[in-house]
Specification:
This protein has 468 residues and is of the alpha/beta class. The chain is 40% helix and 14% strand. The protein has 2 domains: 24-53 and 314-466, Aspartate Aminotransferase, domain 1; 61-310, Aspartate Aminotransferase, domain 2 (3-Layer(aba) Sandwich), CATH 3.40.640. The protein has helices at residues 24-33, 61-68, 78-91, 102-113, 127-135, 162-172, 196-209, 220-230, 239-247, 274-287, 298-311, 314-333, 351-354, 364-376, 385-388, 417-432, 461-466, and strands spanning 48-49, 95-99, 119-122, 139-142, 177-183, 213-216, 252-256, 267-271, 346-350, 378-379, 381-383, 390-391, 398-399, 405-409, 440-444, 455-458. The structure holds ligand F0G.
Length: 468
């Protein structure tokens, strides 16, 4: 099938939000004041914000209308009934626990299912799933597919390495494993999808060893789209039937609805086990809210119920994934080395490859993230040694990340193709003078998740050459 060169939005704009491009001098001043950390920039100083695709969605007219239908009753609201019906149609589980976002769902589920000293296994943990596992004094182990870190042109790079998963389970003993999770799409390896056949294998392993199998399904609809369009045998199935087949293979689901829920906040757990549901509900009432609202307003719940029906619409997904592909291709044309195949929610630039003169410990990803802001007011996030590197507290040894990436995450239904062309032009300007970029050093940092708050200093050419 020949693809359109430039995809067209399957919606039109009814309400707009003004954005402003500061002058280059102002941007330089702002990034210096932010200590070269893009998290410390004021959003109003950003022209195009690609920091995350989470909670940044533009809602539809139907969602805004649903907000007016929100039933704010403390218990048993109509909003919850509508939400439950929609979740049941897609995820096919008996019980539903609403919560305010994904990490609250993780905290709840892990509080009940994860025991101290046990293991949680995942294709790749997202930062908060990893942190919540560690908070329960358990160990988070990843089994990304061997293809995920290669340049191989393999479509389902988000897959679980089921061979390694099973050997690990048989080596440690099934009783030591609290939970197996498949994250769809696999955010930490580039928003890469997981195939249905891979999910089936993981599910069979979990059944064989009697281990609970859950999904972290923040981007489930994007994953279903890849299954439909790229996995043989699924081309004639609807997105909802693919979702039904996928969720039939697991014991439960936790979801950050801030992505494929097409809302600005929300999350949930849905599962079949009644006893577990009761234990989770007891905890939910203590930490999030009553069982029919769980930290959300009735209007949030109604917007989410509508968002979940819109996200499984094929035309929406076809445009969404095509727009990311278009974005990736323009970035490639600008000279940027990107992670391929292009994933579902972001373009990842390999800054290590782009800037070989900046060593990993001088954060080439941060150099690119800062340059994107200075050159074009574009905010992105480094996913390299600033985020994943550090010092081992036991050995004192410094370690760096596997790859020095920068994530350009595209919010849903927010930016048009001309914004994307503008970003690619900014990237080209940087590419043409990439030798001029220098590295950074950390001036101040916290013990955990340092990238959110650290302060950086720019290294001059001379300094960069003398630091080790
Ligand atoms: N799981 C995955 C795969 C995620 O990507 C995220 C959030 C969460 C769980 C946590 O959900 O934010 O609602 O508490 N990812 C965002 C990102 C923050 O930028 O990738 P949350």
């Amino acid at each position: 099938m020949s693809r359109k060169r430039q995809p067209a939005e399957p919606y039109r704009i009814k309400s707009i939000e003004q954005i402003k491009l500061l002058s280059r001098d102002q941007r330089l001043k702002r990034i210096r004041e932010a200590k070269f950390n893009t998290f410390k920039l004021d959003a109003s100083d950003v022209y195009i914000d690609l920091l995350t695709d989470s909670g940044t969605t533009a809602m539809s007219n139907k969602q805004w209308a649903a907000i007016m239908m929100g039933d704010e009753s403390y218990a048993g609201s109509d909003s919850f009934k509508r939400f439950k019906k929609t979740v049941n149609e897609i995820f096919c589980k008996k019980f539903l626990i609403p919560c305010h976002q994904g990490r609250a769902a993780e905290n709840l589920l892990f509080s009940v299912l994860v025991s101290e000293g046990s293991y949680v296994l995942n294709n790749t943990h997202f930062d908060t799933t990893r942190a919540n596992t560690l908070l329960k004094k358990a160990l988070a182990v990843d089994f990304p597919s061997p293809e995920s870190f290669t340049n191989q042109d393999y479509r389902f790079k988000g897959n679980m390495d089921n061979q390694r998963l099973e050997s690990f389970i048989s080596e440690k003993g099934a009783e030591k494993i609290s939970l197996v999770i498949t994250t769809v799409t696999n955010n930490s390896v580039g928003g890469q999808p997981v195939s249905m056949s891979n999910i089936k294998e993981t599910s069979a392993i979990c059944k064989k060893y009697n281990i609970p199998f859950y999904f972290d399904c923040a981007r489930f609809a994007e994953n279903c789209y890849f299954i439909k369009t790229e996995e043989p045998g699924y081309e004639d199935m609807s997105i909802i039937s693919i979702a039904n087949e996928m969720f039939d293979l697991c014991d439960g689901v936790m979801m950050s609805a801030k992505k494929d829920g097409l809302v600005n906040t929300g999350g949930f757990i849905t599962l079949d086990d009644e006893k577990l549901y009761q234990r989770l509900t007891e905890l939910l009432i203590v930490i999030e809210g009553f069982s029919t609202y769980g930290g959300l307003a009735g209007r949030d719940i109604d917007a989410l119920a509508v968002g979940l029906t819109e996200v499984i619409d094929f035309d929406y997904l076809d445009f969404r994934i095509d727009q990311i592909r278009y974005f990736g291709e323009l970035m490639k044309e600008s000279g940027m080395p990107i992670v391929e195949p292009i994933g579902g929610h972001a373009v990842f630039v390999d800054a290590g490859q782009l800037l070989p003169h900046i060593p990993d410990h001088q954060f080439p990803g941060q150099a690119l993230a800062v340059a994107l802001y200075v050159e074009g007011g574009v905010r992105t996030v480094e996913l390299g040694s600033l985020m994943f590197g550090g010092t081992d507290p036991n050995t004192g040894q410094k370690f760096t990340a596997r790859r020095e990436l920068v994530r350009l995450a595209l919010p849903r239904r927010v930016y048009t193709n001309s914004h994307i062309q503008y970003i690619a032009e900014t990237a080209k300007t940087i590419f043409d003078q990439k030798e001029k970029l220098t590295g950074f050093e950390i001036k101040k940092q916290s013990a955990f998740l340092r990238h959110f708050t650290c302060e950086l200093g720019i290294l001059s050419k001379k300094e960069a050459a003398t630091t080790v």
